[in-house]
Specification:
The protein is of the alpha/beta class. It has helices at residues 20-29, 37-49, 65-71, 86-98, 133-140, 170-187, and strands spanning 55-59, 78-83, 105-109, 123-126, 149-152, 192-197, 204-209. It has one domain (30-209): Rossmann fold, CATH 3.40.50.150. The chain is 32% helix and 17% strand. A 7-stranded mixed β-sheet has the order 3-2-1-4-5-7-6, sandwiched between helices. The chain is globular and about 45 Å long.
Length: 213
């Protein structure tokens, strides 16, 4: 894996019993980033409040933690989740199977911009390669209708987006500059009703699609 990161071995076949907290804790213990607790609670509360949300598309499966948490809210929701890393994908599949959610969470191993479907989604959750957020948004619009919600995580990136002096790493500064540009563009995009929550999680934007003009 990139950076020599080791994927946690959470499950050994069908005998392994896990829960969402265990998946989260194991991921963090292996330096695999998962959504911050307050950001996760925000996302789950949003879904709970909007009972029309049934079909969800997620970009950035990682080990399946967020997809599992979303699926546990209501029994009639289905989730398509996309992961580009083969080891992460395999671990997510194992975790989802261990949680008996394979019939409702469907994992796709590919770059998110290569994903194609005839489905229309009620919610699109994007927590993948930050520098590609604009590409993901434009690609996923074909799977949206008026009222579809797009939620983006990591738009603050540990505070560096708003205060570049927090890092001296050139590549990090370049990436966070792209995030800032995307965030500013998103807030001005007339296609969406957008709210930004900089103090929640690592900076979350909620964008409700107004439909094509």
């Amino acid at each position: 894996m990139p950076g020599g990161r080791k994927t946690p071995a959470l499950c050994q076949g069908r005998q392994c019993m896990v829960d969402a907290k265990h998946i989260r804790d194991e991921a963090l213990s292996h330096d695999i980033p998962v959504m911050k607790d307050d950001g996760m609670q925000f996302l789950l509360h949003y879904i709970e409040e909007h009972e029309n949300i049934r079909d969800i598309l997620e970009a950035g499966t990682a080990v399946g933690y967020s997809a599992i948490q979303m699926a546990l809210i209501r029994w009639d929701m289905t989730i398509d989740t996309i992961e580009v890393d083969e080891q992460m994908y395999a671990q997510a599949k194992a975790n989802i199977e261990a949680m008996n959610l394979s019939s409702r969470i469907h994992c796709h191993l590919m770059d998110a911009v290569d994903f194609e479907t005839d489905k229309i989604y009620d919610l699109v959750f994007i927590d993948a390669a930050k520098s590609q957020y604009q590409r993901y948004l434009e690609h996923f619009l074909r799977f949206a209708r008026r009222g579809t919600t797009f939620i983006f995580d990591n738009l603050g990136f540990h505070g560096i987006v708003d205060d570049p002096s927090l890092t001296h790493n050139r590549s990090t500064r370049q990436m966070t500059a792209k995030i800032r540009h995307f965030r500013d563009r998103l807030l001005e995009d007339d296609r969406f009703e957008t709210s930004y929550h900089g103090q929640i999680g690592d900076g979350i934007a909620v964008c409700v699609y107004k439909g094509s003009f």
